[in-house]
Q: What sequence folds into this?
């Protein structure tokens, strides 16, 4: 099955730094979603984007729906230790009438206090 | 509280045995999904159901079976035909594109 290209694969940063990650696809999507997964837990939805060019914030997190509809970006400002985890992007609406999502390969974020 | 529950959190089975993983939601969502996650990997879709009494195969359905007799419940059976069943299994439900996940079940088969 298809998976989205997510980069970087991993990031090791100092507390207080800003973080950027992105997700690219060869397909056009109608929806982009960003999730965070803590070790041994299910992913938690952070931000949902529904319109090309849309920029949405959730606290220190900001995500953008790329204008080409083939990419999305997530930024985390002023990182803190609890930001540690794996971040997944997901695209939806590339085919048919189902609400299936295609997930990215994940970005592992480590934050050093 | 509204949400998705999966039980048990940890499950151990001997090779050759079928095992059923539970997933229940009280969010009144029509669609439900099962994913498999291996260490350091993303999520791979096993089965999904958009409505009661209907379900479709995902990308890696071989060796798995599901049922959707009630809106709230979407159990997954890992059969002995699944060659590499040890993994972390995640269930999700959605009203649309936004999927909400349960806490997962870690299955170990020896």
A:
């Amino acid at each position: 099955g298809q998976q989205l290209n997510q980069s970087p694969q991993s990031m090791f940063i100092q507390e207080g730094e800003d973080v950027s990650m992105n997700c690219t696809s060869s397909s056009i999507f109608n929806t982009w979603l960003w999730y965070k997964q803590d070790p041994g837990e299910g992913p938690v939805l952070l931000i949902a984007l529904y319109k090309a060019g849309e920029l949405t914030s959730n606290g220190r997190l900001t995500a953008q729906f790329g204008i080409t509809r083939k990419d999305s970006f997530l930024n985390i400002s002023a990182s803190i230790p609890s930001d540690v985890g794996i971040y997944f992007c997901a695209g939806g609406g590339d085919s048919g009438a189902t609400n299936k999502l295609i997930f990215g390969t994940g970005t592992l974020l480590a934050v050093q206090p | 509280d509204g949400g998705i529950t999966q039980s048990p959190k940890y499950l151990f089975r001997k090779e050759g045995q079928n095992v059923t993983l539970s997933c229940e939601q009280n969010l009144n969502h029509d669609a439900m999904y099962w994913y498999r996650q291996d260490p350091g990997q993303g999520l791979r879709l096993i089965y999904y159901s958009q409505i009661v009494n209907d379900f479709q195969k995902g990308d890696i359905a071989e060796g798995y079976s599901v049922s959707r007799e009630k809106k709230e419940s979407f159990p997954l059976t890992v059969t002995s035909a699944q060659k590499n069943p040890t993994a972390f299994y995640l269930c999700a439900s959605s009203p649309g594109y936004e999927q909400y996940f349960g806490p997962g079940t870690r299955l170990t088969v020896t």
In short: The CA atoms of residues 40 and 70 of chain A lie 30 Å apart. Chain A is about 0% helix and 50% strand.
